[in-house]
Amino acid sequence: MSGFVQGARPVGGMTGYAMRTTFQVLCLVFVGFVVLLLVGDALYVDGRAVQTVLTAPYVRSALWMSTWTSLVTVAISLAFAVPTGYVLSRCRFPGRSCVDAVVDLPIVFPPLVAGLTLLVFFTQTGVGRWIENAGFRFVFQPKGIVLCQFLIAASYAVRGAKVGFDGVDRRLEHVGLTLGHSEWSVFRRVTLPLARNGIIAGAIMTWARAFGTFGPLLIFVGSFRGRTEVLSTTIFLEQSVGRLDVALVIALLLIGIALVALVGIRLLDQRATTGY
């Protein structure tokens, strides 16, 4: 013990150095591969394709369709995510693990399966046909876009809300109850504000996922120009007629939106960790 130097870093030896070096190289290879793809895509497009995307009326229409449907999807998702996340975080009941698994199921759904499931439900089942005949039409309608996005993306909002509620110190809630506040008052004044970052992060992920949804839309609502066309289906339509450069510009736009969403989540996480 006499030879131990206080404050000295542990010596990992050559094995530790080799491990760290290998991991760093693999990390660089992965990041470099992604960056190389993005740079290659950016170098492929030209000014004419960019001008087409900026001026084409159908692109603006698809952008507006993507924007308002994804925002509506986020609002609906949060309406379900906050109570569902709270139940999964605070309540213990039989079958809770199954409910938790079902909540995550849409995340691992193959997108085409989600679209096919919706199509079969609303066209082949009695309940689905009754909903359609009652005037709530979803098949090949803009409302169907919101339904597809909700099915695919709402789980991210639920998971974000649950993580946020899991991070709230239960002792603070108990203090509020001992001071005479009702459970609803404690939830509104203590729990919900403290879980805010998790809920916002889930909302951002939900929006980004909904904004880029493609597979279910193609099956359930189609890709009718000016009616059910969003940016993701615009990419499909453009590349299907050989306009790969225009499709790539729109794809880069979606990647940029996803990047902004991820940066927003990182900033929220940094704020929660450092306090500023």
What's a quick, concise take on this entry?
With 276 residues, the protein is an all-alpha fold. The chain is built from 13 helices and no strands.
Topology:
Elements: H1 13-44, H2 47-55, H3 57-90, H4 96-108, H5 111-124, H6 126-133, H7 142-166, H8 170-178, H9 183-194, H10 196-211, H11 215-220, H12 231-240, H13 244-274
Helix pairs in contact: 1-13, 2-13, 3-7, 3-10, 3-12, 4-7, 5-6, 7-10, 8-9, 10-13, 12-13
Description:
- With 276 residues, this protein is mostly helical.
- It has one domain (46-269): MetI-like fold.
- The chain has 13 helices and no strands.
- Helix 1 packs across helix 13 (244-274) and helix 8 runs antiparallel to helix 9 (183-194).
- The radius of gyration is 24 Å and the shape is globular.
Number of helices: 13
CATH C-level label: Mainly Alpha
CATH architecture: Orthogonal Bundle
Give the helix proportion (percent range): over 70%
Tags for this entry?
mainly alpha, globular, 13 helices, MetI-like fold, 276 residues
